[in-house]
Amino acid sequence: MRIASIGLGDIAQKAYLPLLASWPDLDWVLCSRQADTLAKLAQQYRVAHTAANVEEVLALNVDGVMIHAATHAHSALVRPFLAAGIPVFVDKPVAQSGADVEALFNLAEKHNTPLFAGFNRRYLPLLNAHLNGQRPEDELGSLLLSLRWEKHRHALPDAPRRFIFDDFIHPLDSINLHGDMNIDDLDVFAQFDEGLLARLDIRWHRDNSLFEASMNRQYGATKETIAAAYRNECYFFDGFTRGERMQDNQVAQLALPDWTGMQASKGFEAMLNHWFEVVQTGRIDAAITARSVASHWVAEDLVAYCEALRDNG
After folding, report:
1. Same domain, 177 and 306
2. Which residue numbers delimit the Gfo/Idh/MocA-like oxidoreductase N-terminal domain (predicted)?
């Protein structure tokens, strides 16, 4: 299987290249307009095939492409590969606006070609081992009653679109388990600092379950926590490697196995496993696509809401 990685910046070098370098049966192509970076990484990872642009990648007859470039470049990079019938993986956000995202997924549908949105938090091994979304109700009634996802940063207020599309979309998508979140059903709270979005909280409920996402970019430290409650059972995760399960007034410590690597603990390894299955089968579940589109549209609506709130003082 020949896979091209396009865009070799920080996220590619930290999260993807170390994994891909050791992936079995992978014929790997690196692509970047930065000639020095391309040459350095090709040598470091012993990659034989390189390319400087989309046309050169297309000429190498790849089976799939992975887009790690800046968000503003996503649409232009994704389109030619979908039009050529080549499956595409693209880091979240898929594009800079809800309309652009929907247009790309429509193009994928037109060419019957998978477009895979890279939400690594859907694949966190510790959480999925214990929560696994909304579990089937057992004889004790284990239906998920609440889920709260907090992702905070220190001293990073930003314009609403960058704040929401480039960062807040992670906790937003993580509570949009069923892909049916709607801005009209949300309770939204936003704080600004000198015209920049500093904090955003959303809250909504579906059936008998409560979902909340929070991001404070004026927090004391960079931190991510997840809390989930079932009937007489609850979980708290401080990051992605350790947590607690509370039941019958007892607290059990949860942890990943020793020596679990960063890429695995943050879901990148499981996400790539799924992505390569999509490449091999040429199909992606419609519910996954619907969730990706819905999360981006809620992000778009939140941008509009926050910009209006800011402009109206």
Report:
1. yes
2. 1-119
